[in-house]
Write a structure and sequence with these properties.
- The protein is an alpha+beta fold and 353 residues long.
- It has two domains: 145 residues, no CATH class; 182 residues.
- It is built from twelve helices and ten strands.
- A seven-stranded antiparallel beta sheet has the order 1-2-3-4-5-7-6.
- A hairpin with a 7-residue loop joins strand 3 and strand 4.
- The longest helix is centred in the C-terminal third of the chain and has 21 residues.
Amino acid sequence: MSNEVTRQKKEVYPISENLRNYLKKYHRNVKLPISYAELLRFQGGLPIYDEEGNDTLWLQIFFPESEQEEINTGLKKIYSILHVDGNEDILPYLKVERIDFCSFGNTKPFRVKIRNIINDNYSYLYVKQADSSRAYGLELEDILSPNQINFLVQGDTLIEEHIPGIPGDVFMKNYLTECPQEEQAAIAKEFVKFNERCFIRLLGDMRSYNYVVVLTHDFDRIQYRFRAIDFDQQSYEGERNFYTPQFFKENYPLVKLAERNLPKDSIEQYKNEERALIAKRANSNYERLGRLLKCMKKDVLSSDDRIKNLKKELLEITGDVKFKKANNMGTILKSAIDFVTRNYENINPYIIK
Protein backbone atom coordinates (compact mmCIF):
# COMPACT_ATOMS: atom_id res chain seq x y z
CA MET A 1 0.00 0.00 0.00
CA SER A 2 1.25 3.48 -0.85
CA ASN A 3 1.99 6.15 1.73
CA GLU A 4 -1.02 7.90 3.21
CA VAL A 5 -2.04 11.07 1.39
CA THR A 6 -1.94 14.33 3.31
CA ARG A 7 -4.54 17.07 3.49
CA GLN A 8 -4.08 20.48 1.91
CA LYS A 9 -6.33 23.51 2.16
CA LYS A 10 -8.36 23.77 -1.02
CA GLU A 11 -8.91 27.03 -2.85
CA VAL A 12 -12.55 28.05 -3.36
CA TYR A 13 -13.45 28.67 -7.01
CA PRO A 14 -16.48 30.86 -7.80
CA ILE A 15 -19.24 29.52 -10.02
CA SER A 16 -18.66 30.65 -13.60
CA GLU A 17 -21.27 32.04 -15.95
CA ASN A 18 -21.14 28.88 -18.09
CA LEU A 19 -21.78 26.64 -15.11
CA ARG A 20 -24.50 28.95 -13.84
CA ASN A 21 -26.28 28.72 -17.21
CA TYR A 22 -26.02 24.93 -17.06
CA LEU A 23 -27.51 24.90 -13.57
CA LYS A 24 -30.29 27.19 -14.74
CA LYS A 25 -31.17 24.82 -17.59
CA TYR A 26 -31.56 21.92 -15.16
CA HIS A 27 -33.43 24.01 -12.55
CA ARG A 28 -30.60 24.10 -10.03
CA ASN A 29 -30.15 27.89 -10.26
CA VAL A 30 -33.17 29.49 -8.58
CA LYS A 31 -34.26 32.57 -6.63
CA LEU A 32 -33.57 32.11 -2.92
CA PRO A 33 -35.20 34.14 -0.12
CA ILE A 34 -32.07 34.23 2.02
CA SER A 35 -28.33 34.06 1.33
CA TYR A 36 -25.30 32.55 2.99
CA ALA A 37 -23.99 36.04 3.77
CA GLU A 38 -27.17 36.92 5.67
CA LEU A 39 -26.70 33.94 8.00
CA LEU A 40 -23.26 35.24 8.91
CA ARG A 41 -25.00 37.94 10.97
CA PHE A 42 -25.41 35.56 13.92
CA GLN A 43 -24.42 37.04 17.27
CA GLY A 44 -23.04 34.05 19.11
CA GLY A 45 -23.14 30.32 19.60
CA LEU A 46 -22.71 27.37 21.93
CA PRO A 47 -20.39 24.43 21.13
CA ILE A 48 -22.09 21.13 20.30
CA TYR A 49 -20.68 17.95 21.81
CA ASP A 50 -21.32 14.34 20.82
CA GLU A 51 -22.59 11.60 23.15
CA GLU A 52 -19.04 10.98 24.40
CA GLY A 53 -18.41 14.63 25.22
CA ASN A 54 -16.18 15.35 22.22
CA ASP A 55 -16.36 18.74 20.50
CA THR A 56 -18.06 18.27 17.10
CA LEU A 57 -16.68 21.61 15.81
CA TRP A 58 -20.28 22.76 15.28
CA LEU A 59 -21.84 25.73 17.08
CA GLN A 60 -25.53 26.17 17.78
CA ILE A 61 -25.93 29.81 16.78
CA PHE A 62 -28.30 32.63 17.69
CA PHE A 63 -29.53 35.73 15.87
CA PRO A 64 -30.73 39.08 17.17
CA GLU A 65 -34.38 38.83 18.19
CA SER A 66 -35.29 41.50 15.64
CA GLU A 67 -33.95 39.30 12.79
CA GLN A 68 -34.90 35.82 13.99
CA GLU A 69 -38.37 35.69 12.40
CA GLU A 70 -37.08 36.92 9.04
CA ILE A 71 -34.28 34.34 9.10
CA ASN A 72 -36.64 31.51 10.06
CA THR A 73 -39.18 32.43 7.38
CA GLY A 74 -36.47 32.52 4.72
CA LEU A 75 -35.13 29.11 5.74
CA LYS A 76 -38.62 27.56 5.70
CA LYS A 77 -39.14 28.94 2.20
CA ILE A 78 -35.84 27.39 1.13
CA TYR A 79 -37.06 24.06 2.49
CA SER A 80 -40.23 24.38 0.40
CA ILE A 81 -38.24 25.23 -2.74
CA LEU A 82 -35.93 22.26 -2.17
CA HIS A 83 -38.66 19.70 -1.48
CA VAL A 84 -42.02 20.86 -2.87
CA ASP A 85 -41.09 23.27 -5.69
CA GLY A 86 -41.76 26.34 -3.58
CA ASN A 87 -45.32 25.53 -2.50
CA GLU A 88 -45.75 27.79 0.54
CA ASP A 89 -48.87 26.02 1.80
CA ILE A 90 -46.61 23.94 4.04
CA LEU A 91 -44.92 26.93 5.73
CA PRO A 92 -47.37 27.15 8.70
CA TYR A 93 -46.52 23.54 9.55
CA LEU A 94 -42.74 24.03 9.58
CA LYS A 95 -40.57 25.14 12.46
CA VAL A 96 -36.88 26.01 12.38
CA GLU A 97 -35.69 23.99 15.34
CA ARG A 98 -32.02 24.89 15.29
CA ILE A 99 -29.30 26.51 13.18
CA ASP A 100 -25.72 25.28 13.52
CA PHE A 101 -22.51 26.67 12.07
CA CYS A 102 -19.24 24.85 11.37
CA SER A 103 -16.02 26.82 11.01
CA PHE A 104 -14.18 23.63 10.00
CA GLY A 105 -14.11 22.87 6.28
CA ASN A 106 -13.78 24.79 3.05
CA THR A 107 -17.34 26.10 2.77
CA LYS A 108 -18.04 26.78 6.49
CA PRO A 109 -21.59 25.44 6.28
CA PHE A 110 -24.76 26.20 8.18
CA ARG A 111 -26.88 23.19 9.15
CA VAL A 112 -30.58 23.86 9.59
CA LYS A 113 -32.92 21.49 11.44
CA ILE A 114 -36.55 21.89 10.34
CA ARG A 115 -39.41 20.11 12.08
CA ASN A 116 -42.92 19.37 10.84
CA ILE A 117 -45.09 20.37 13.80
CA ILE A 118 -47.98 18.09 12.73
CA ASN A 119 -46.17 14.74 12.82
CA ASP A 120 -42.97 15.75 14.66
CA ASN A 121 -40.75 14.53 11.80
CA TYR A 122 -37.67 16.59 11.06
CA SER A 123 -35.00 16.92 8.40
CA TYR A 124 -31.88 18.95 7.74
CA LEU A 125 -30.65 21.18 4.98
CA TYR A 126 -27.30 22.92 4.54
CA VAL A 127 -26.51 26.47 3.48
CA LYS A 128 -22.98 26.84 2.12
CA GLN A 129 -20.74 29.13 0.13
CA ALA A 130 -21.18 28.36 -3.55
CA ASP A 131 -18.07 26.74 -5.00
CA SER A 132 -17.55 25.36 -8.52
CA SER A 133 -15.84 22.22 -7.28
CA ARG A 134 -18.77 21.37 -5.03
CA ALA A 135 -21.39 22.16 -7.69
CA TYR A 136 -19.60 19.94 -10.23
CA GLY A 137 -19.20 17.22 -7.62
CA LEU A 138 -22.87 17.25 -6.69
CA GLU A 139 -23.97 17.20 -10.33
CA LEU A 140 -21.60 14.35 -11.19
CA GLU A 141 -22.89 12.43 -8.18
CA ASP A 142 -26.43 12.80 -9.50
CA ILE A 143 -25.44 11.66 -13.00
CA LEU A 144 -22.81 8.95 -12.47
CA SER A 145 -23.56 7.39 -9.07
CA PRO A 146 -26.50 5.23 -7.94
CA ASN A 147 -27.63 8.16 -5.76
CA GLN A 148 -29.81 11.10 -6.67
CA ILE A 149 -29.05 14.35 -4.89
CA ASN A 150 -30.86 17.67 -4.63
CA PHE A 151 -29.16 21.06 -4.44
CA LEU A 152 -29.84 24.69 -5.38
CA VAL A 153 -27.64 27.67 -6.22
CA GLN A 154 -28.06 31.41 -6.34
CA GLY A 155 -25.19 33.89 -6.40
CA ASP A 156 -22.67 32.89 -3.74
CA THR A 157 -25.11 30.61 -1.90
CA LEU A 158 -25.50 26.85 -2.29
CA ILE A 159 -28.34 24.88 -0.66
CA GLU A 160 -27.87 21.16 -0.21
CA GLU A 161 -30.18 18.47 1.09
CA HIS A 162 -29.07 16.25 3.95
CA ILE A 163 -27.75 12.79 3.03
CA PRO A 164 -28.83 10.34 5.75
CA GLY A 165 -26.57 7.52 6.86
CA ILE A 166 -24.04 6.44 9.47
CA PRO A 167 -20.83 8.51 9.24
CA GLY A 168 -17.97 6.33 8.03
CA ASP A 169 -15.83 6.82 11.15
CA VAL A 170 -18.78 6.02 13.44
CA PHE A 171 -19.66 2.95 11.37
CA MET A 172 -16.13 1.56 11.62
CA LYS A 173 -15.93 2.25 15.34
CA ASN A 174 -19.35 1.04 16.49
CA TYR A 175 -20.76 -1.30 13.84
CA LEU A 176 -18.10 -2.92 11.68
CA THR A 177 -16.75 -5.49 14.12
CA GLU A 178 -20.28 -6.50 15.18
CA CYS A 179 -21.38 -7.45 11.66
CA PRO A 180 -21.66 -11.18 10.83
CA GLN A 181 -19.03 -12.65 8.51
CA GLU A 182 -21.30 -12.73 5.44
CA GLU A 183 -22.16 -9.06 5.95
CA GLN A 184 -18.49 -8.15 6.30
CA ALA A 185 -17.88 -9.54 2.82
CA ALA A 186 -20.78 -7.47 1.49
CA ILE A 187 -19.41 -4.34 3.17
CA ALA A 188 -15.97 -5.00 1.67
CA LYS A 189 -17.53 -5.37 -1.77
CA GLU A 190 -19.33 -2.03 -1.48
CA PHE A 191 -16.17 -0.31 -0.29
CA VAL A 192 -14.30 -1.61 -3.34
CA LYS A 193 -17.03 -0.28 -5.62
CA PHE A 194 -17.12 3.06 -3.80
CA ASN A 195 -13.34 3.29 -4.10
CA GLU A 196 -13.54 2.69 -7.86
CA ARG A 197 -16.42 5.12 -8.32
CA CYS A 198 -14.53 7.94 -6.59
CA PHE A 199 -11.42 7.28 -8.64
CA ILE A 200 -13.13 7.24 -12.04
CA ARG A 201 -15.06 10.46 -11.45
CA LEU A 202 -12.10 12.11 -9.62
CA LEU A 203 -13.83 12.80 -6.32
CA GLY A 204 -11.11 13.35 -3.74
CA ASP A 205 -10.65 13.40 0.04
CA MET A 206 -13.04 10.60 0.92
CA ARG A 207 -11.84 10.19 4.47
CA SER A 208 -14.14 8.41 6.86
CA TYR A 209 -15.92 11.60 7.94
CA ASN A 210 -16.68 12.63 4.34
CA TYR A 211 -18.99 9.73 3.51
CA VAL A 212 -21.79 7.79 5.16
CA VAL A 213 -22.83 4.15 5.12
CA VAL A 214 -26.49 3.58 4.27
CA LEU A 215 -28.16 0.39 5.56
CA THR A 216 -31.20 -0.99 3.74
CA HIS A 217 -33.06 -3.98 5.14
CA ASP A 218 -33.82 -6.51 2.41
CA PHE A 219 -36.07 -9.52 3.04
CA ASP A 220 -33.16 -11.82 3.92
CA ARG A 221 -30.22 -9.51 4.63
CA ILE A 222 -28.97 -5.97 5.15
CA GLN A 223 -27.63 -4.15 2.11
CA TYR A 224 -24.87 -1.57 2.50
CA ARG A 225 -24.00 1.41 0.35
CA PHE A 226 -21.28 4.01 0.72
CA ARG A 227 -22.35 7.57 -0.13
CA ALA A 228 -20.15 10.62 -0.42
CA ILE A 229 -21.38 13.64 1.54
CA ASP A 230 -18.56 16.10 0.82
CA PHE A 231 -17.86 17.21 -2.75
CA ASP A 232 -15.40 20.08 -2.22
CA GLN A 233 -12.48 18.11 -3.65
CA GLN A 234 -13.98 17.25 -7.02
CA SER A 235 -11.22 17.28 -9.66
CA TYR A 236 -8.82 19.37 -7.58
CA GLU A 237 -5.88 17.27 -6.40
CA GLY A 238 -2.90 16.33 -8.54
CA GLU A 239 -2.20 12.83 -7.23
CA ARG A 240 -4.33 9.83 -8.06
CA ASN A 241 -4.15 8.53 -4.47
CA PHE A 242 -6.27 11.48 -3.32
CA TYR A 243 -9.10 10.04 -5.43
CA THR A 244 -8.95 6.53 -3.96
CA PRO A 245 -10.40 6.22 -0.42
CA GLN A 246 -8.22 3.17 0.29
CA PHE A 247 -5.13 5.38 0.68
CA PHE A 248 -6.43 7.39 3.63
CA LYS A 249 -5.39 6.02 7.02
CA GLU A 250 -8.91 6.68 8.37
CA ASN A 251 -10.17 3.97 5.98
CA TYR A 252 -7.59 1.30 6.81
CA PRO A 253 -10.10 -0.89 8.72
CA LEU A 254 -12.13 -1.18 5.50
CA VAL A 255 -9.01 -1.89 3.46
CA LYS A 256 -8.08 -4.68 5.87
CA LEU A 257 -11.66 -5.95 5.75
CA ALA A 258 -11.44 -6.25 1.96
CA GLU A 259 -8.07 -8.01 2.16
CA ARG A 260 -9.48 -10.56 4.63
CA ASN A 261 -12.74 -11.25 2.84
CA LEU A 262 -12.18 -10.77 -0.88
CA PRO A 263 -9.80 -12.68 -3.15
CA LYS A 264 -8.00 -10.53 -5.74
CA ASP A 265 -10.19 -11.96 -8.50
CA SER A 266 -13.31 -10.83 -6.65
CA ILE A 267 -11.90 -7.34 -6.16
CA GLU A 268 -11.24 -7.06 -9.90
CA GLN A 269 -14.74 -8.36 -10.61
CA TYR A 270 -16.34 -5.68 -8.42
CA LYS A 271 -14.18 -2.97 -9.99
CA ASN A 272 -15.34 -4.10 -13.43
CA GLU A 273 -18.96 -4.11 -12.26
CA GLU A 274 -18.67 -0.50 -11.10
CA ARG A 275 -16.98 0.59 -14.33
CA ALA A 276 -19.78 -1.01 -16.32
CA LEU A 277 -22.43 0.77 -14.24
CA ILE A 278 -20.68 4.12 -14.66
CA ALA A 279 -20.42 3.55 -18.42
CA LYS A 280 -24.14 2.79 -18.60
CA ARG A 281 -25.03 5.91 -16.62
CA ALA A 282 -22.73 8.03 -18.76
CA ASN A 283 -24.33 6.71 -21.94
CA SER A 284 -27.86 7.13 -20.58
CA ASN A 285 -27.12 10.74 -19.62
CA TYR A 286 -24.98 11.49 -22.66
CA GLU A 287 -26.40 14.94 -23.45
CA ARG A 288 -26.51 16.21 -19.88
CA LEU A 289 -23.08 14.86 -18.99
CA GLY A 290 -21.65 16.29 -22.21
CA ARG A 291 -22.96 19.75 -21.38
CA LEU A 292 -21.55 19.55 -17.87
CA LEU A 293 -18.12 18.47 -19.06
CA LYS A 294 -18.15 21.19 -21.72
CA CYS A 295 -18.59 23.75 -18.92
CA MET A 296 -15.97 22.03 -16.83
CA LYS A 297 -13.38 22.21 -19.62
CA LYS A 298 -13.76 26.00 -19.66
CA ASP A 299 -13.41 26.42 -15.89
CA VAL A 300 -10.36 26.72 -13.68
CA LEU A 301 -10.69 24.08 -10.95
CA SER A 302 -7.10 23.44 -9.95
CA SER A 303 -3.52 24.61 -10.42
CA ASP A 304 -1.34 23.90 -13.45
CA ASP A 305 1.10 21.76 -11.47
CA ARG A 306 -1.70 19.53 -10.15
CA ILE A 307 -3.17 19.14 -13.63
CA LYS A 308 0.23 18.27 -15.08
CA ASN A 309 0.97 15.66 -12.43
CA LEU A 310 -2.47 14.02 -12.48
CA LYS A 311 -2.59 13.58 -16.25
CA LYS A 312 0.93 12.10 -16.12
CA GLU A 313 -0.11 9.53 -13.51
CA LEU A 314 -3.31 8.60 -15.36
CA LEU A 315 -1.36 8.26 -18.63
CA GLU A 316 1.01 5.84 -16.90
CA ILE A 317 -1.90 3.78 -15.58
CA THR A 318 -4.02 3.64 -18.74
CA GLY A 319 -1.64 4.28 -21.63
CA ASP A 320 -4.37 6.48 -23.13
CA VAL A 321 -2.78 9.39 -25.04
CA LYS A 322 -5.89 11.52 -24.42
CA PHE A 323 -4.58 12.17 -20.92
CA LYS A 324 -1.31 13.44 -22.38
CA LYS A 325 -3.21 16.02 -24.44
CA ALA A 326 -5.45 17.17 -21.55
CA ASN A 327 -4.82 20.74 -20.40
CA ASN A 328 -7.38 21.14 -17.58
CA MET A 329 -9.34 19.10 -15.06
CA GLY A 330 -12.48 19.02 -17.22
CA THR A 331 -10.56 17.43 -20.09
CA ILE A 332 -8.89 14.95 -17.74
CA LEU A 333 -12.26 13.87 -16.33
CA LYS A 334 -13.78 13.56 -19.81
CA SER A 335 -10.82 11.41 -20.85
CA ALA A 336 -11.32 9.18 -17.80
CA ILE A 337 -15.03 8.71 -18.49
CA ASP A 338 -14.39 8.13 -22.21
CA PHE A 339 -11.76 5.53 -21.33
CA VAL A 340 -14.22 3.63 -19.15
CA THR A 341 -17.14 3.80 -21.60
CA ARG A 342 -14.95 2.85 -24.57
CA ASN A 343 -13.56 -0.21 -22.79
CA TYR A 344 -17.04 -1.22 -21.67
CA GLU A 345 -18.34 -1.10 -25.25
CA ASN A 346 -15.31 -2.96 -26.61
CA ILE A 347 -15.47 -5.88 -24.19
CA ASN A 348 -19.27 -6.27 -23.99
CA PRO A 349 -20.26 -8.84 -26.67
CA TYR A 350 -23.97 -8.10 -26.26
CA ILE A 351 -23.90 -4.45 -27.33
CA ILE A 352 -25.36 -3.93 -30.82
CA LYS A 353 -23.16 -1.51 -32.73
